[in-house]
């Protein structure tokens, strides 16, 4: 299995400031044939279903605010919230779908 | 609009089985795979497997392959997840979702809490 390691486990950011979450895969999840990065990011709030934010590592899903962005390739990926809003308090998960699907351990984002 | 509506909470005894349903609407059932994920309290997301609603073909996460069965009823656009030989470690919220083959999950059900307790 491809192991996805997220960091940090939690972070506290002031409103309006940047939040950065990292995800490292145990082997490359970038396809040589199509040059696509098989990574998605999800947001989980208590009592709610997960919400897709990003797929192909950097493509925002429909309706996702543009303060959310994804980047990276190979084994290193990042989710950035450019200006944290109160409604962004949640746990964020990366996922790889290159091999058998696996998730990172999650990063809890709070307001400082 | 796309909706996935799951069956209600379940309480099962150790050793029993549970079957969760996922009724879909708002899109063509056969076009997207149905994918299942669970989250135990205080834990992260865990992949269970997926099913092609068109063919019924399934792929299961290795650690569940001998206990999980994914099925569907195309006449009512509904998918099912059955998990057998339950233990307390199977206590979790189970989610169905849809998504493209070998891809992400864009719409999710509301989740079904399964509690395993004697």
What sequence of helices (H) and strands (E) makes up the elements of chain A? EEEEEEEEEEE
The largest β sheet of chain A comes out as: 7 strands, mixed
Distance between the termini of chain A: 36 Å
Which overall shape of chain A is indicated by the principal axes computed on the Cα atoms? globular
Question: What is the beta-strand fraction of chain A?
Answer: over 45%
What's the number of helices of chain B? Answer: 0
What pattern of helices and strands is seen along the backbone of chain B?
A: EEEEEEEEEEE
* Overall geometry of chain B: globular
Strand element count of chain B: 11
Outline the secondary-structure elements.
The complex is a heterodimer of chains A (112) and B (118).
Chain A: E1 4-7, E2 10-13, E3 19-25, E4 39-44, E5 51-55, E6 59-60, E7 68-73, E8 76-81, E9 90-96, E10 102-103, E11 107-111
Parallel strand pairs in A: 2-11
Antiparallel strand pairs in A: 1-3, 3-8, 4-5, 4-9, 5-6, 7-8, 9-10, 9-11
Chain B: E1 3-6, E2 10-12, E3 18-25, E4 33-39, E5 45-51, E6 58-60, E7 68-73, E8 78-83, E9 92-99, E10 107-108, E11 112-116
Features:
heterodimer, A: 112 residues, mainly beta, seven-stranded mixed sheet, 48% strand, B: 118 residues
Describe this structure in words.
The complex is a heterodimer of chains A (112) and B (118). Chain A is mostly beta strands. Chain A has no helices and eleven strands. Chain A has strands at 4-7, 10-13, 19-25, 39-44, 51-55, 59-60, 68-73, 76-81, 90-96, 102-103, 107-111. In chain A, the strands form two sheets. In chain A, strands 2, 4, 5, 6, 9, 10 and 11 form a seven-stranded mixed beta sheet that branches. Chain A is globular and about 40 Å long. By secondary structure, chain B is mostly beta strands. Chain B is 0% helix and 50% strand. Chain B is built from no helices and eleven strands. Chain B is globular, with a radius of gyration of 13 Å. The A-B interface holds A 1, 38, 40, 42, 44, 49-52, 55, 61, 93, 95, 97, 100-106 and B 35, 37, 39, 44-47, 50, 59, 61-62, 95, 97, 102-106, 108-111.
């Amino acid at each position: 299995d491809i192991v996805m390691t997220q960091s940090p486990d939690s972070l506290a950011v002031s409103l309006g400031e940047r939040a950065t979450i990292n995800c490292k895969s145990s082997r490359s999840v970038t396809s040589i044939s199509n040059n696509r990065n098989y990574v998605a990011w999800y947001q989980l709030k208590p009592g709610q279903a997960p919400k897709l934010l990003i797929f192909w590592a950097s493509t925002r899903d429909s309706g996702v605010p543009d303060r959310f962005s994804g980047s990276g390739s190979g084994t290193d990926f990042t989710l950035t919230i450019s200006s944290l809003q109160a409604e962004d308090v949640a746990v964020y998960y990366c996922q790889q779908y290159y091999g058998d699907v696996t998730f990172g351990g999650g990063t809890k984002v709070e307001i400082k | 609009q796309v909706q996935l509506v799951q069956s209600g909470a379940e309480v099962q005894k150790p050793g029993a089985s549970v079957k969760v349903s996922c009724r879909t609407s708002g899109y063509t059932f056969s076009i997207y795979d149905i994918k299942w994920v669970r989250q135990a309290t205080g834990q992260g997301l865990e992949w269970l497997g997926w099913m092609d609603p068109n063919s019924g073909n399934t792929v299961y996460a290795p650690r569940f392959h001998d206990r999980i069965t994914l099925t569907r009823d195309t006449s009512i656009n509904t998918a099912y997840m059955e998990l057998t030989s339950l233990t307390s470690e199977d206590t979790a919220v189970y989610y169905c979702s849809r998504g493209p083959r070998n891809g992400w999950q864009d719409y999710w059900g509301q989740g079904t809490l399964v509690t395993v307790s004697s």
